[in-house]
Amino acid sequence: xxxxxHHRICPLCEACCGLEIKTDGDKVVSIRGHEADVLSRxxxxxxxxxxxxxxxxxxxxxxPRIKRNGVHVEATWEEAFAEIEARxxxxxxxxxxxxxxxxxGNPSAHKIGLxxxxxxxxxxxxxxxxxSASTLDxxxxxxASGLMxxxxxxxxxxxxxxxxxxxVIGANPLASNGSMWTVPDFKGKAxxxxxxxxxxIVIDPRRTETAAMADAHHFIRPGADVFLLAAxxxxxxxDNLVSLGRAAPWVQGTDEVRxxxxxxxxxxxxxxxxxxxxxxxxxxxxxxxxPRAAVYARIGTCTQTYGTAAxxxxxxxxxxxxxxxxxxxxxxxxxxxFATNTAGKPGTGKGVSTGRHxxxxxxxxxVYGELPITCLAEEIDTPxxxxxxxxxxxxxxxxxxxxxxxxxxxxxDTLDFMVSLDIYLNETTRHADVILPGLSPLEDLHYDVxxxxxxxxxxxxxxxxxxxxxxxxxxxxxxxxxLAAIVRGEGAQADANALDDTxxxxxxxxxxxxxxxxxxxxxxxxxxxxxxxxxxxxTGPYGDQFGQKPDGLNLAKVMAANATGGIDLGELxxxxxxMLRTPSGKVELAPPLLLQDLKRAEQALQQPAxxxxxxxxxxVRTNNSWMHNLPxxxxxxxxxxxxxxxHDAQRCGxxxxxxxxxxxxxxxxxxxxHISAEMMPGVVSLPHGWGHxxxxxxxxxxxxxxxxxxxALLDDQLRDPLSGNAVLSGVAISxxx
Length: 737
Ligand SMILES: Nc1nc2c(c(=O)[nH]1)N[C@H]1C(S)=C(S)[C@@H](COP(=O)(O)OP(=O)(O)OC[C@H]3O[C@@H](n4cnc5c(=O)[nH]c(N)nc54)[C@H](O)[C@@H]3O)O[C@H]1N2
Ligand SMILES: Nc1nc2c(c(=O)[nH]1)N[C@H]1C(S)=C(S)[C@@H](COP(=O)(O)OP(=O)(O)OC[C@H]3O[C@@H](n4cnc5c(=O)[nH]c(N)nc54)[C@H](O)[C@@H]3O)O[C@H]1N2
Ligand code: SF4
Ligand SMILES: [Mo]
Fold this sequence. Notes:
This protein has 737 residues and is α/β, with parallel strands linked by helices. It has 26 helices and 29 strands. The model has no long low-confidence stretch (mean pLDDT 97). One ligand MGD binds next to helix 16.
């Protein structure tokens, strides 16, 4: 035995834990937490161990597939690229670039190759039809943060190691390990907060794992967060509790906010929220009274029709109580690489806008370069000029992850051509004419592009591949460059490395002008995402500026720190005004788009709430739709159950362990019931990402216990009109045994 120890950042969720992986030859011997890791200090969850299953999964694709007579057959890379070249460019010539669409999913956020090269494919296609899982997830938070602070990834983060009060709304970090907030071992940090006399408060329609450890938990009617938050803001004004604190000189719009929330008294919203007016008032008072306090809200508050407004009001609360940009309150990370809020002129910028173009069928506005992914099916199945006929998917499974999966599946069958870059033959990729596999995560290098911008502590960590890639298999950035070249008519023969060199030189020219040649020379030993990363680190806020600051960071230094757990860049620090990128150079507390949307909420407040609604759920042993094929995670109790409150069970005649039909108009799914007082009465919870019983897939373990597809029940027409985000929570249903 010759065992080797590797240190590798886990690419599976946003906690980005450092792992210690022991290998023997080409076998994984063990996976555990890396104690020295500067961010995660040895913490891991059960999914990390499943990286071994993922690496060894016989169902994971290692060679391309081409669909011949309805069956996916193995093909060489040359054959696969030749098939794409034969079919895609002629379609574009005949029908134009908007007849193509591209959709990218969650794993791309965890892959530097996909994240930094996907844009090259999207630009080569030149289509308006760019979709991603962001509009099933965090787009409302990004839009609200963008409007307030000037950039899409300038998200305020709780300073968990110093706060005394943390209010968590619509998030369950004990299961999810945190989101839009990279905070490995949330539980340990929350316990430390409680041990120093602080409090954790959870607001959620389910008494979740996080709620169970909290000092207080309040149920809320799904979708009512905008009302709760507006009433809390109202209370701050009404009871003279507004105090802007350290951010005061840079905040504008307080008076407009005061006027906008005037109608939202605690009494006016109490019934809609399912919360007592006194509870709402007390929450606002406690927040204002506590010097170090933070409100954190996540997916439960985003995946609703007022997702952007709710996300905005969270930071309005943080600001009006003086907690924005303060120690123990909400702070902004200062990332070593890739952050727009560390680039260009400090303190002001272009800000963000939406609606540079619109979806053909629904007219939904573009947001952050994308259209809502819930528009994808109708763009394919609605005839007319600009109808989508060709689709490229990259690491996404919208047949399970996006509302009205069955409609989308039917639409995908009508495409003239579909390519998927994916590691499985699953519910979505089974529709593809060509599937191009990505590497196993253990064969790929790793540096997180997005999550250091959202981390509880500043850091820079790089991990090299644990195993060599199989001979002949391209890295995903190379595949993306080849696809881009085919689309541009440069042919399937184009060499990815040569393309990369040419494009890098062009980019360097644009970015560095007279210094371009020096930058190219200094990075000549690197290629692909490594080269881009070196440039980003060196020109970043801690960088060596290509030798001008010899003590500064570069890729070589970050790589050298791999075995010792990466480079710690310290606790988050106040960053206003330097991090702002709004045109005004201020924190925009009252963006007109959001004031306007509050009027819509005010009208909706008059409408009665539905008496039975559905929400989602996450479990620590799952990850969206694609980890149900891994034996380590799949074993144990069945997780795709519908949680039903005892009163609702009785009302609808439903038995423990029985099967229910859940209906939403013509849509329905059947699920196994678990009766649980964890649920708020009138709310049913079913996890998403299940429904592995569709024909034509290769997911043998997942198919043994397929579960129900929550998204077969949800409506693709329900969106937050501002961000385009899908409504996944609080949708009215009926239930029968
Ligand atoms: N009802 C409901 N629906 C939801 C949610 C919800 O809470 N409720 N949550 C939403 C959220 S937050 C998200 S982020 C989306 C996720 O939506 P998606 O991104 O569409 O779904 P995933 O299940 O993450 O699918 C990931 C895909 O990437 C593939 N993959 C995995 N690793 C790699 C890799 O290294 N390379 C490549 N090329 N492919 C890879 C997998 O095989 C799978 O096909 O789901 C959303 N859907
Ligand atoms: N184990 C595991 N970890 C994951 C994932 C996974 O699938 N499994 N997915 C990853 C992804 S892609 C993401 S985006 C993150 C998400 O991370 P989180 O945001 O923490 O997601 P959830 O665990 O779904 O928690 C959302 C909570 O919102 C509650 N909720 C639902 N509707 C409402 C509402 O209207 N109002 C309020 N206040 N609460 C509501 C739900 O009951 C649930 O407890 O998790 C990531 N981590
Ligand atoms: S919490 Fe997330 S990043 Fe950490 S080990 Fe688990 S899956 Fe990996
Ligand atoms: Mo997500």
